[in-house]
Amino acid sequence: MSATPHPQKNRAPRRVLAVAAGLATAGALVAAMPAGAHDRGNGHGGPSRTVDVQLLSFNDLHGNLEPPAGSAGSVSEKQPDGTVKSVPAGGVEYLATSLRTAREGNPYSVTAAGGDMVGASPLLSGLFHDEPTIEALNKLDLDVTAVGNHEFDEGATELARLQNGGCHPSEGCYEEGRTFEGADFPYLAANVTDEKTGKPVLAPYTVWEKDGVRIGFIGVTLEGTPDIVTANGVKGLKFHDEIETVNKYARELDRQGVKSIVALIHEGGAPASSAYNYDCDSPGAGDGISGPVVDIAKGITPKVDALVTGHTHQAYVCTVPDPAGNPRMVTSASSFGKVYTDTTLTYDRRTQDIVRTSVKSANHVVSRDQAKAADMTELIDRWNTLAAPIAGRPQGYISADIDGRGSTALEKPLGNLIADAQLEGLAPEDKGGAVVALMNPGGIRSDLVYAASGAEGDGVVTYGEAFTVQPFTNMMNVVDLTGAQLVAALQQQVSGSNEASPKILQVSEGLTYTLDMTRTGADRVVTGTIRLNGEAIDPAKTYRVAMNEFLAGGGDGFAALGQGTDKLVGPSDLDLFNAYLAAHSTAGAPLAPPATDRITLVR
Predict the structure, then answer these.
(1) Where is 529: in which H helix or E strand?
(2) Can you give the pLDDT at residue 70?
(3) Mapping DSSP to helix (H, G, I), strand (E, B) and coil, where does residue 353 land?
(4) Residues 538 and 498 sit within 8 Å (Cβ to Cβ)
(5) Which one of 182, 268, 321, 330 has the minimum C-beta count within 10 Å?
(6) What b/e sequence results for 444-461 when a residue is b if at least 16 CB atoms lie within 10 Å of its CB, and e otherwise?
(7) Cα–Cα distance list, 192 to 203, 234, 239, 413 (Å)
(8) Collapsing DSSP states into helix, strand and coil, what is residue 209?
(9) Distance of alpha carbon 153 from alpha carbon 158, whole angstroms
(10) Alpha-carbon span 513 to 411, nearest angstrom
């Protein structure tokens, strides 16, 4: 495949990449190799038959340029004595240092990502439609990434702008004299096609090349993306089966003579341990992981040599057999830039394929005990200066940490707080007349942390911190649901598409019930215990229910919530959250973490 310059860029050369042709939205990307890189010698003055290619990978950055706050900013590390300790990690200043250090002494090094680089981002990136994150990834020398579901939060047109550059269509350029240049790396979207043309919306694959060593990368997101993204975000798009798509393009690459292939898949699994250094192949190969990625790995053609995955925010390095029964590496690197994976792919020049039995991989913590990358510090400072007038505004006060994303409990203190804020804001008759509010757990993106993140002081919740908790700015809806539909929605938390991995709605004060996890499916919700303000839910009665627009569209498998009628659109979820903080807290009387006593859990 010939290499042509990226049409949007004018940067110093570093690596050669050839992108699948004929896709106007993606374009082509190429750069020359650094001088002086050589294969391993064979003792006779010539190159050896094999060469080790270093594959560095990470996933689910979600625009976390600064170190994540609270429990979301640490990883679990298994100690030699079997205990597990929490290690602070993450922040793009440290991620850059980790990757640059890892590349030293590895002339054949390629860096890839498993999707969700942007979306659900903290204020520093989200306020500017994630332009800061794309700039940071360019500086990180990212070579390629798959799209994830969150890349579609603002729709395909905005994703194309992140790829190709240009100022935001409504907000324009954020800095005078500076135009956003877009990504230096290709976003791959092999299984996302335009409904009208049937063609992928971005390049389906790319080929990394150096000194005759060629490795193809195919990128896909989970087929179920429309179920977890707002309808506007995926309008006009079709999402296809991950296995069928990867196999299709693996055959195409093979016909082109590209025998070494890596799949970047934004779908993942659940390891048996949360420790990033857990042995996923204990007691046997792949025994330590479950979830969708296992079936995907078992179904993808043996032409693919390794799988870089994501989406579940877990860390694992597993060997899952391919359809031919041969071992194949499947990796994931946690989230928020806290971990990176270093994989060695031994490339055979004669067969042009990876020697699968020689593949080695390990996850590494992005420690905060190392030096910060100065160019990343400059980037963060530059964007923080632009965000400061908004980010530092106090919104309220808390007396202690209020855990949300970092909580492992099904009922989360921050979830209750958010649901209460939504109910209070939408309960007045002229605001919707809501009697109950429901919040999706995946929409809670962080914790509220008592310790100051800047100069605001301990216990102060700033606009930036509140935005990090609820970055989607979903508009609130109030709809009519029958009691039967409300009960059905509660049952859908633990049945249907959510049976294997329950999604427990966070409920406002007044709604109580028992969740019996010793049962299966919908029976886990003990319907006889469901009460609203002490009264049993009447299946025939109509209730006004508040929820964000994502849930009101049936997102996250809650089809019953999508059946609501007489919809009233209210303020954004963030506006209601900030209003509640302001109304219920002062410096002298801060808000305490709410009790978690609405769902009685039986295990």
Answers:
(1) strand 525-532
(2) 85
(3) strand
(4) no
(5) 321
(6) bbbbbbbeebeebeebbb
(7) 10, 10, 5, 37
(8) strand
(9) 9
(10) 12
What pLDDT does residue 7 have? Answer: 36
Residue 560 has a CB neighbour count (10 Å cut-off) of 19
CA 221: distance to chain centroid? 11
Output the CA–CA distances (angstroms, integers) from residue 189 to 81, 215, 251, 253, 498, in the order listed.
43, 17, 17, 15, 25
Q: What is the model's pLDDT at position 69?
A: 87
Q: What span, in angstroms and rounded, lies between the C-alpha atoms of 420 and 208?
A: 51
Q: How far apart are CA 479 and CA 551, in angstroms?
A: 11
Q: What is the dihedral of CA 516, 519, 521, 527, to 10 degrees?
A: -50
Q: Which of 298, 200, 309 is nearest to 252 (CA)?
A: 200
Are 445 and 407 in contact, with CB atoms under 8 Å apart? no
* Residue 467, C-beta contacts closer than 8 angstroms, at least 6 positions apart: 122, 123, 126, 127, 391, 574
For residue range 279-307, what is the model confidence (pLDDT) as tens digits? Answer: 999 999 999 999 999 999 999 999 999 99
**Token output for 383:** 């964007």
User: Are the CB atoms for 137 and 115 separated by under 8 Å?
Assistant: no
- Domains for the chain: give ranges and CATH numbers: 50-374 (3.60.21.10), 393-601 (3.90.780.10)
**368-378 burial: b if 16+ Cβ within 10 Å, else e:** beeeebeebee
SS3 79: coil
**β-pair type (16-19, 205-210):** antiparallel
| Residue 32 CA: distances (Å) to CA of 2, 122, 183 | 13, 35, 17
Element (H, E) at 342: strand 339-348
pLDDT per residue as tens digits for the range 78-127: 999 999 999 999 999 999 999 999 999 999 999 999 999 999 999 999 99
What is the arithmetic mean of pLDDT over 518-528?
A: 97
Q: Please report, for residues 10, 220, 363, 364, the alpha-carbon distance to residue 289 in angstroms, rounded to integers and kept in the order given.
A: 43, 21, 15, 19
Closest CA to 473 of 282, 309, 230: 230
Cα–Cα distance measured from residue 337 to residue 103, given in angstroms and rounded to the nearest whole number:
17
Percent of the chain at pLDDT above 90?
90
Q: Which two tokens stand for residue 118?
A: 């942007």
Count of alpha carbons within 13 angstroms of residue 173, beta-carbon side? 10
Determine the Cα–Cα distance for residues 220 and 241; give it in Å rounded to an integer: 9
- Residues 162-204 pLDDT 10s: 999 999 999 999 999 999 999 999 999 999 999 999 999 999 9
> Dihedral of CA 338/364/247/109: which sign?
positive
In this structure, are residues 305 and 354 in contact, taking their beta carbons and an 8 Å threshold?
Answer: yes
- At position 356, the amino acid (one-letter code) is R
